Automatic annotation (TrEMBL), chains A, B:
E.C. designation(s): 1.3.1.12
Name under which the protein is recorded: prephenate dehydrogenase
PROSITE patterns for the chain: PDH_ADH
Pfam families found in the cross-reference section: PDH_C, PDH_N
Gene Ontology molecular-function annotations: NAD+ binding; prephenate dehydrogenase (NAD+) activity; prephenate dehydrogenase (NADP+) activity
Pathway the protein acts in: Amino-acid biosynthesis; L-tyrosine biosynthesis; (4-hydroxyphenyl)pyruvate from prephenate (NAD(+) route): step 1/1
Catalytic activity, reaction form: prephenate + NAD(+) = 3-(4-hydroxyphenyl)pyruvate + CO2 + NADH
Major enzyme class: oxidoreductase
Amino acid sequence: MSSAEKPLIGHLVIVGVGLIGGSVSLALKKAGVVGHVTGVGRNRDNLELAQRIGIVDAWTHDVGEAVRDADVVLLAVPMSAYASVFAAMAKTLPEHAVVTDAGSTKQSTIIAANKFLPGPERFIAAHPIAGTEKSGAGAAFAELYEKRLCVITPVGDSSATALALVMQLWEKTGSRVVTMDAAEHDDFLASVSHLPHLAAFALVNAVRRQKSEGHDPFCFAAGGFRDFTRIASSSPEMWRDIALSNRDALLGQLDAFQQELNGMREALLADDADRLLKEFSAAREAREAWLAKHGDGL
Amino acid sequence: MSSAEKPLIGHLVIVGVGLIGGSVSLALKKAGVVGHVTGVGRNRDNLELAQRIGIVDAWTHDVGEAVRDADVVLLAVPMSAYASVFAAMAKTLPEHAVVTDAGSTKQSTIIAANKFLPGPERFIAAHPIAGTEKSGAGAAFAELYEKRLCVITPVGDSSATALALVMQLWEKTGSRVVTMDAAEHDDFLASVSHLPHLAAFALVNAVRRQKSEGHDPFCFAAGGFRDFTRIASSSPEMWRDIALSNRDALLGQLDAFQQELNGMREALLADDADRLLKEFSAAREAREAWLAKHGDGL
């Protein structure tokens, strides 16, 4: 960025300087589209580290103070903290400032913005579908979002200029940006992400409760079990928040899954080899087709 | 093996010369405990390949002919073929010969042996918990069973000498041999292996049926989904056979899993954050404990 040009985003405030927020800053800095970055958080060591490695130019613990001259604010905190963060910035957020986020569910996020932000039309909800198992500023890297999908879910009242700016921001991180309805996003993510997490936690608990004297069923678990349950090693706190913030969509997907399981049960009870083969084959084909189309980007 | 010594197994007949059967032969040859190995199968190309790469010394399509002077017979065919293979060897199997297998479920295997074999006390059921996603003689390798668990499930009528020989055979492949009750084995394997496969197939089908115009939920699937559903790319035919051959245990484990899911549903409906956190945390801890204890051997 030459000093003569005005950057796309003059002052970016990132609330929550971890893997997600930190990687946005590094990507935008690398793309040369951001002027000054202020980090907000509670953990002093993490914030100092973020400044030392060039993620933020300054930091503070005070959200209200930080957003006072912000152009864009990015929320990258657990979704259980959204209400309090929105409330904390309500009085000092400039009228021109645009707010976006990186949370895993979108309807609840929009509801919280409508309730707590003075200009909710300038909140544009986003969900970059990327992450690693690591956390904290030290885990951030500029390439995290490259070629990943970022779903943006504007509503009828959204400001067109705010939407355009937020789309540019996420595109500049390297994401493939798509816009869609928040409810549809929440359904799809419940289906391919939130439900699998719930099911993995549930399956490990079923095995755990079966542990008896003498023998331990876990002794017989192999590579298939390891892969199937990998997501059951995810953060319980984060997944509690996601499950509750997307409760209705998740309940709907849980219904659909239990219907499938009931179908499998019926086929087993009836010794219906043809039906089992048909169901197993259809699943295998669908998965292989998905991998062929999307496997490279994983 | 010096020519002066008599090997543990003079003549081994392997019915089904694929990854599982072929690897047993290679491991026993490497250990120097087998004299002559005859392979039995239907696919001529596969059998010729097996002979060329030293898995078998001879081969035939005829089970009855092959077992005529066998000391040990190993079944390594799909479980749906057990009845016909047992029946085919019934007339020619020598009285001293011992039979073992490598199938994933054990009660149904024992029932089939009791029904079709003339001397069922000399059938010792085994389940080596090992495998790769590949199949065929070309995929076999001598180290497949090294340090893997091999569960042997003798019954009250089992011949003690047959049991001793089969235990030695599997130990010589490098397995860690344990004996246990067939019903308990089937319950545990239903829990940590068969149910996860059923659940992975069911989950992919739930997503598949949700595909609508315009948007495809698979587009939003990422690494977690890939790992969770990896086993849904397994052979539909093999898993149909396993599911049906272990039907009752699998139905029991499916009940236990659906109870866990119902518990999650109740917690979601009640917005019970504490209960969700407790369940998710317990699952995570159990999985981490399992990995700490058994992760190296996977």
